[in-house]
Amino acid sequence: MNVRLISGLYGGRIIEGSGTNRTHPMGERIRNAIFNKIGFELKDAEVLDAFAGSGALGLEALSRGARKVTFIERDRVAQTIINSNIALLGVERDATLVKAPVASWAKASHRQFDIIFADPPYHDPQLSTVTELFRLLKPNGLMVLSYPGRSETLAETGVVVVDNRSYGNAAIAFYRKEGA
């Protein structure tokens, strides 16, 4: 299944989908809603695309003005597709693929990000890992979490849910890290 980048420098370009049934590709309607909401925050942002799948969220962020994107993905098929999509768009300088489980990478990382996309597998939402990702947000940073529509949102000290939207079987929560 191919994915269309929606807007920005690479808007309209087709990238390869995840290629594996172990991921749940986010629909274009949901991606469009996310990026319409946060578009103004992308200019020169450092972005983390956790549980990256095809890399569509991070690549859309680059298309819309993000400075750098780090993709974290453990699935080898998905890793190959992300590398292919990065090469297809010619964004090797601005994109880094980390081939590791998000949980182990997040525990060891000391990097900070302006925006984090977390789209864990719906059959294994890895809430402790998502909670660990909050630590990697810069003050006033934003996390966009995709989760099954019937689940509860996470609560964590130092981050506030600023919006929560439902799209059928999927829901998106927007978290803001409190300023320093």
From TrEMBL:
Origin superkingdom: Bacteria
Organism of origin: Candidatus Microsaccharimonas sossegonensis
Name of the top EC class for this enzyme: transferase
Record-listed E.C. numbers: 2.1.1.171
Name under which the protein is recorded: 16S rRNA (Guanine(966)-N(2))-methyltransferase RsmD
GO molecular function, one term: 16S rRNA (guanine(966)-N(2))-methyltransferase activity
CDD domains: AdoMet_MTases
UniProt-listed PROSITE patterns: N6_MTASE
The encoding gene: rsmD
Keywords: Methyltransferase, Transferase
